[in-house]
Amino acid sequence: MNIGEYISSLSMQDITELLDKYEALGPLPGILFPFVEAFLPFLPIIVIIMGNAAAYGLWKGFLFSWLGIVAGSICIFALTRRFGRSFSAYIHRKYPRGRAMFEWMERKGFSPIFIMACFPFTPSFLLNVFAGLTQVSTGSFVLAIVLGKAFNVFLISLVGSDIFSIFYHPWKLIFVISLFSLIWVIGRRLEAHYRTK
Question: Exposed (0-12), middle (13-18) or buried (19+): which is 76, by Cβ within 10 Å?
Fold first, then answer.
């Protein structure tokens, strides 16, 4: 098993144990794990967020995960904006029909980025890169990511901070599964709608 396979196979308990092991480093591991995930999208971000919430508690776990994810997203966006111009031109040449998607995001700006950032199942790496290839303003992107990821990360942290009580109260488990399913379905419908449009 290579390092990538090992990291992507980590469970929430493994991550919690790692965070406990490096407790002396304070919040650094809790911020660093989600930050690194922005560059390595195969890492299990939901498990990382839940592990942070279990290790640090709801509020600190949420804060550390949110800081790491937002910082990583802004870095990917900035790097793409800085070095991705030729790639953007290549996409426009290779997939001329994709230009409408770029123009739609540029026209709407904040809203589509915010909505996609809210959903736990949106591939953040692709969202950050795609936004970086458009002419969306940096301010609109940062605001949408900061607010959207706050909702997203808090929802996952809420589950992770008290994961065991959920199994003792079946209604909580049903509620969480229903909420995640609803968000996923809405996200898929929005994705399909805008792709068709």
Answer: buried
Give the span between the Cα atoms of 44 and 57, in whole angstroms: 19
Name the amino acid, one letter, at 190.
L
- Indicate the DSSP class of residue 11: -
- Four-residue CA torsion sign, 109, 105, 121, 93: negative
pTM (two decimals): 0.71
Q: For residue 186, give the nearest of 110, 119, 127 by alpha carbon.
A: 119
Number of H helices, E strands in the chain: 12, 0
Interval 71-117: pLDDT, tens: 999 999 999 988 877 776 666 666 666 666 667 777 777 778 888 88
